Amino acid sequence: MSSLKPLDYELLKQLTQKFGPSGNEIEVADFIIKQVKTIADSVQIDPLGNLIIRKRGNGTKIMIACHMDEVGIMVTHIDDQGYLYFVPVGGLRGPDLIAKRIIFKNKRIGVVCRERKKRAEDKSTGKIFIDIGVTSEAEARSIVTEGDMATLVGDFQETESHIISKALDNRIGCFLALEIFKQIHCESDLFFTFTVQEEVGARGAKTAASTIQPDLALIIDTTISYDTPNERNRTSLGHGVAIKVMDRSIVVSPKIKNWMADISSQKNIPFQWEIITTGGTDSGPVHLTQGGIPTGGIAIPVRYLHTANEIVTKTDMQSAYNLLLELLLNPYKEWQ
To answer: Which of 20, 32, 79, 281 has CB atoms 3.0–4.6 Å from 221's, for a disulfide?
Structure first.
């Protein structure tokens, strides 16, 4: 393989702890810019908020896309006791948040709670709200207001073999893109694209692809790990990088997925196939842009996706890094 470079997990730690719910990714973008501003050929933030960092070349124009946003919540109402009512932003289920902590951009912590049932036989779930430790609406409004967003609280923990944190979806993709950007040298014209609003419909990727008009797009994201009890024969931790075949938004061209698998096999990179019927990534809108863009996807399996305690293996991240690097050094060229 072309690289035995160890990954810098301190960089991943810093990325995961940045505040970046959908539509509010600027803190993540600013951090990424600081990492590359002295080595990038150009740095651009488009009107929607996508961050596009270019490493110029004379060959194939390749877009490497990964989304910066994480799932979160938005305040919709504040009652007279100072409790906050909210809606999810992205794939969060209210009942799964009970007794969990959330954090606003101003660093205020809240706890997600549920209204008490009036009778023991009452089967209703009750309304869900956030308690930020105040006693009145006026006090609450001095801290937050309707439209303010919050994300899950989930500290970064590293073991010998695994990482546990919030926002691994998809700060892993940002992390791998940054690691590769810092060292890759190739003929291709590379556009490392850190997209916005993926969790609410892959909106940023569509506009970025229209701007770049690449010859090839490679999307980096996470995928569900199905290796918990009673689940078998699907993407799971420890089996290598996942090469996308299908999700709800794309059926990957056989030529593209086979090219990716061939590179994996040639370079002895462990991989597995990603075939899912729900969910989607930036690959959906990208492959439909400008009359069609050849698009491939790689993903890192994650346990407990869209929670404060997502878990990933270091070996799968290393496999994803190695495969993406090799794909950029050996780009798909059938259209040429």
So the answer is: 281
Check the CA dihedral 65-312-36-326 and report its sign: negative
- If you search the block for the tokens 């150009």, which residue do you land on? 42
Catalytic residue flag (residue 10): no
Q: Are 94 and 88 in contact (CB under 8 A)?
A: yes
Catalytic residue among 179, 198, 199, 326: 198
Q: Give dist(CA 139, CA 229) in Å, integer.
A: 46
Cβ contacts of residue 34 below 8 Å, gap of 6+?
none
Domain 72-152: give its CATH superfamily: Peptidase M42, domain 2 (2.40.30.40)
- Name the pTM for this structure: 0.93
What ranges in 144-228 are assigned the alpha helix state H?
168-181, 203-212
Per-domain boundaries in the chain: 9-70+166-329, 72-152
